[in-house]
Amino acid sequence: MCKKFVYGVAVSDYNFIGREVETKRLMNNFRGGINTILMSPRRLGKTSLVMRVCEKLKSEAIITIYLDIFGCKSEYDFYNRLASEILKQTASKQSMWLEEAKEFLYRLTPKISFSPEPNSDFAISLGITPKTHTPEEVLEMAEKIAIKKGKQIVVCIDEFQQIGEMTDSKHVQARLRSVWQHQKHVSYCLFGSKHHLMSSIFLHRSMPFYQFGDLIVLDKIPSAEWVEYIVSHFADGKRTISSALAEEICSFTDNYSAYVQQLSWLVYTQKEEGETVDESDIKQATDDLLATNEVLFMQMVEPLSEYQLNFLRALCSGVTKDFGLAKIREKYQLGSYSNINRLQKALLERDLIEKRGTELAITDPVFAKWFQRKMMF
Ligand SMILES: Nc1ncnc2c1ncn2[C@@H]1O[C@H](COP(=O)(O)OP(=O)(O)OP(=O)(O)O)[C@@H](O)[C@H]1O
Ligand SMILES: [Mg+2]
C-alpha cells in the first residue's frame, strides 16, 4: 500500500514531486564529473533529491555512492564510514565486499559490532586509525577503485556540515580538498543543512572548500505543485479537498516540504472515505501540527536567554531589520546596542533565524507560528 503522505524520511516515487530542474542539473553534474554542493534549510528535500538522482543513474555506467555522516564525530570516524561505504557500494559481489576491500586498502582489521537492539543491523568498523592509515590512503581509494573498474564514481555525502563540527575542522577540510581536487574519475556531491556551518565551509574565501563545485541552494517546491499532489492523493484515498484548502496547507507551512506532508496527513486523518474536507478540519489539523511539534520547539527555546527570546519576539511582531535602533531595543528589551550583534550571531548559529536579503526571519515557519501563540506576552 502506498502511504498517502510521508514526512521525516526521504521520499521517492509516489510521494516525490517536482524538482525537475534540480534533478536534471544534478544528473548533468554527476555525468560530467562536476562536484556539487547542495544546501537548504532542514527538511526541504535534499536527501530525497540526491537519492532520486542516484536511482535514475543506476542504469548508466556511473557508480553512485551515498553516505550519511551525521553520526561521525571525528575525522577518523569519517574515514571509517567513507571507506566502508565506498567498498560496500562498489563491490562486484555484495557478500564479498570485505574480501575485495583488502585489495584496495591494506592493513585492515575489521571489527564487527552488534547493536544492542535485536533485529537491527550490525556495524562493521574497518579499524582505520591514525596508526594504521594516513588520511590520504583512505581518500585516494575511490579513485583507485574507479580506475580498476573502468567506471566513473560519484560520492554523495549527506549531512556534510558535520565536518564543520570536528576538532581542527579547517585542517580536515584542507586534507579532503587537496586529495579530492586531483581525482579524475571521482566527483563529489556534498550536501547538508545548518546554514551557518555549511556556509562556513563553502562560502568563505579563506576556507579550503571555497568554490569547490556547482553550488545549488534548494528552493521550496511551489504551491501549484503541492496543491496538485495534495488534491490527487486525497482523491486516491477517496476523500475530497478543494484546491483552496490545499493552498491553505501550503501557506500555513510556508511550503516547507516535510511540514506540507505532515499537515496534509493530519488533515487526511480527520476524514473517512467519501467525506470532504472543510475549513474546520484545517484548523484542527494546524492545532495538531503545533501540538505534535511542541516538544521539539520547547527544546529549541529552552537554552535561549531572555534577550534571545526577546529578539525572536521582535521578529514575530514584524520587525525584520534595524534592531539596533534605540526605540526597537527599548520596546523589545534587547539590551545595549552592542548586544544586538551578539544576539543575532547566536541565533544564526543555532539556525533559528536566517538572513533573507537585508532582513532577518525565523527559519522554521511552523516554529514561528508556535512561538507566536505560546511565547509572546
Ligand atoms: N520532492 C519532494 N516531494 C514531496 N515531498 C518531499 C520532497 N522532498 C522532500 N519532501 C518532504 O520533506 C521531507 C524531508 O525530506 P528530506 O529528508 O529529503 O529533506 P532533507 O532536506 O534531506 O532534510 P534534512 O535537512 O533533515 O536532512 C520528506 O519526508 C517529505 O515529507
Ligand atoms: Mg537529509
TrEMBL record:
<dbReference type="Pfam" id="PF01637">
    <property type="entry name" value="ATPase_2"/>
</dbReference>
<protein>
    <submittedName>
        <fullName>Predicted ATPase, AAA+ ATPase superfamily</fullName>
    </submittedName>
</protein>
<dbReference type="InterPro" id="IPR027417">
    <property type="entry name" value="P-loop_NTPase"/>
</dbReference>
<dbReference type="GO" id="GO:0005524">
    <property type="term" value="F:ATP binding"/>
</dbReference>
<dbReference type="InterPro" id="IPR011579">
    <property type="entry name" value="ATPase_dom"/>
</dbReference>
